[in-house]
Design a protein that fits this description.
Rossmann fold, 12 helices, 10 strands, NAD-dep_sirtuin_deacylases, NAD-dependent protein deacetylase sirtuin-7, transferase, NAD+ binding, chromatin binding
């Protein structure tokens, strides 16, 4: 074995066999088998050496024997590889950790954020799943997020999404828009809570769709149907028909959800045109509850064609690391509701309470036609418990695994299938 390379002498034997084969113009069957045995033996010895070196590296330097020190010196390439793996694992672990600012530090950061909002000429808010966790809708990459649990081999469950209501953060954003402090909201969320908080349709770009909206793409312009139930029960990746038909032309309706791996092409509720225009005009961007791992892939939202000095100032509220942290003028480590409560107090604005009686979805919704009542089994939104069907009144929140629709199917598609051997 040559010092430092970690390769046994069988490798030299394999090389001799290969040279002999080249000279002879090919390998006989017995020679091929011999070469394969040598290759497999080399790989097994390499794996043994890797495990051995890994065990030694886990020891403190003072606990290593002279023989172990010699082995590390002879296996420089393996040591470098293992140390690189360890650094990458630690870096990934740190990025997944949730960090909370000290209360006094957080208040100071909120004062700075409030000043930035007062001085902003055109403020755009980008929102992610983190603003809806207070409504019992899981996020994706948090400690109990969808992707995190799936990577650990655990099942994903959540309360009935029809029970979710706009959070303090949703209502605060609506008030900021009313006060003309926020000009536009760009959301990754499909839960429809921005719409239900009272934010005008023109002020929202729901880039990944809305679970309450189905559309007819045969009509020009597309005809929208807002419903009071989750329309995605029968839909999935690349399969968007909801099972209902257009009241005007009779064509199949489809949901508006943009799954991972798909490209959003609908005008509404995605509203990409308004999102792009808002980003181009923004001098300040506030990111709330988003890991930004998806939003970072949309260069139109970050004004990348502008020189850095002319790009919007970026403010991020998130408990975990984001790929835009180094670009941010300020990063606030805190829960969105906690930060927004402090922010609204600093701005001297009252946070409106959500009321189902004033929920815009009921006035926007198109009722089902006769014969369509059995086209879904999702629980419908009701203004009060008295309006709910008898079986739904007083029913506790379900925590059963979500099997269908934009949320359930979006989760299950991430589960890796084991290869059949």
């Amino acid at each position: 074995m040559r010092p430092g390379c970690g390769l046994p002498c069988e490798a030299e034997a394999e090389a001799r066999v290969s040279r002999g084969a080249m000279a002879a113009g090919g390998l006989s069957r017995s020679e091929r088998k011999a070469a394969e045995r040598v290759r497999r033996l080399r790989e097994e010895q390499q794996r043994d050496r890797l495990r051995q070196v890994s065990r030694i590296l886990r020891k403190a330097a003072v606990e290593r024997s002279a023989e172990e020190v010699r082995l590390l010196a002879e296996s420089g390439d393996l040591v470098t590889e293992l140390q690189g793996r360890s650094r990458r694992r630690e870096g990934l672990k740190r990025r997944q950790e949730e960090v909370c600012d000290d209360p006094e530090e957080l208040r100071g950061k909120v004062r700075e954020l409030a000043s930035a909002i007062r001085n902003a000429k055109y403020l755009v808010v980008y929102t992610g799943a983190g603003i809806s966790t207070a409504a019992s809708i899981p996020d994706y990459r948090g400690p109990n997020g969808v992707w995190t649990l799936l990577q650990k081999g655990r099942s994903v469950s959540a309360a009935d999404l029809s029970e979710a209501e706009p959070t303090l953060t949703h209502m605060s954003i609506t008030r900021l828009h009313e006060q003309k402090l926020v000009q536009h909201v760009v959301s990754q969320n499909c839960d429809g809570l921005h719409l239900r908080s009272g934010l005008p349709r023109t002020a929202i770009s729901e880039l990944h769709g809305n679970m309450y909206i189905e559309v007819c793409t045969s009509c020009v312009p597309n005809r929208e149907y807002v419903r009071v139930f989750d329309v995605t029960e029968r839909t999935a990746l690349h399969r968007h028909q909801t099972g209902r038909t257009c009241h005007k032309c009779g064509a199949q309706l489809r949901d508006t959800i943009v799954h991972f791996g798909e490209r959003g092409t609908l005008g509404q509720p995605l509203n990409w045109e308004a999102a792009t225009e808002a980003a181009s005009r923004a001098d300040t961007i506030l990111c709330l509850g988003s890991s930004l791992k998806v939003l970072k892939k949309y260069p139109r939202l970050w004004c990348m064609t502008k020189p850095p000095s002319r790009r919007p100032k970026l403010y991020i509220v998130n408990l975990q690391w984001t790929p835009k942290d180094d670009w941010a003028a300020l990063k606030l480590h805190g829960k969105c509701d906690d930060v927004m409560r402090l922010l609204m107090a600093e701005l001297g604005l009252e946070i409106p309470a959500y009321s189902r009686w004033q929920d815009p979805i009921f006035s926007l919704a198109t009722p089902l036609r006769a014969g369509e009542e059995g086209s879904h089994s999702r629980k419908s939104l009701c203004r009060s418990r008295e309006e709910a069907p008898p079986g739904d009144r007083g029913a506790p929140l379900s925590s059963a695994p979500i099997l269908g629709g934009w949320f359930g199917r979006g989760c299950t598609k991430r589960t890796k299938r084991k290869k059949v051997t």
